[in-house]
């Protein structure tokens, strides 16, 4: 499998998060860090973003089983 790097607009489209939300989560160690492409250009590893999405969905499903409200944990 090839590693694919994706830019911010695609990360935002995949996750539904805003730019500020993504960087807030990164600063809180709750989102994959970006990779410097040189200069001011950055990208994210697509598989890491997909894993983050899968984890969010998994927490949602786990919370349904336990009756816990996920909104306080995102």
Descriptors for this entry?
74 residues; alpha+beta; three-stranded antiparallel sheet; 3 helices; elongated
What does this entry look like structurally?
This protein has 74 residues and is α+β, with helices and mostly antiparallel strands. The protein has three helices and three strands, in the order βααββα. Strands 1-3-2 form a three-stranded antiparallel sheet. The mean pLDDT is 91.
Task: Offer a concise description of the structure.
The chain has 74 residues and is of the alpha+beta class. Helix content is 51%, strand content 15%.
Number of helices: 3
Average pLDDT for all residues: 91
Helix content: 40-55%
Query: Which descriptor suits the 3D outline?
Result: elongated
| Order of strands across the main sheet | 1-3-2
- Poorly predicted ranges (pLDDT <50, ≥5 residues)? none
Percent of residues in β-strands: 5-15%
* End-to-end C-alpha gap: 30 Å
Structural class: alpha+beta
- Listing every helix as H and every strand as E from the N terminus to the C terminus, the arrangement reads EHHEEH
- DSSP E strands, number: 3
If you compute it from the alpha carbons, what radius of gyration comes out, rounded to the nearest whole angstrom?
14 Å
- Biggest sheet statistics: 3 strands, antiparallel
Helices and strands in order:
Elements: E1 5-6, H1 8-15, H2 19-27, E2 35-38, E3 41-45, H3 46-66
Antiparallel strand pairs: 1-3, 2-3
């Amino acid at each position: 499998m090839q590693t694919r790097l994706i830019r911010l607009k695609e990360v935002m489209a995949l996750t539904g998060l805003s730019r500020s939300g993504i960087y807030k989560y990164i600063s809180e160690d709750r989102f994959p860090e970006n990779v410097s492409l040189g200069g001011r250009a950055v990208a994210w590893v697509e598989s890491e973003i997909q894993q983050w999405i899968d984890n969010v969905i998994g927490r949602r499903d786990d919370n349904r089983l336990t009756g816990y409200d996920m909104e306080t944990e995102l």
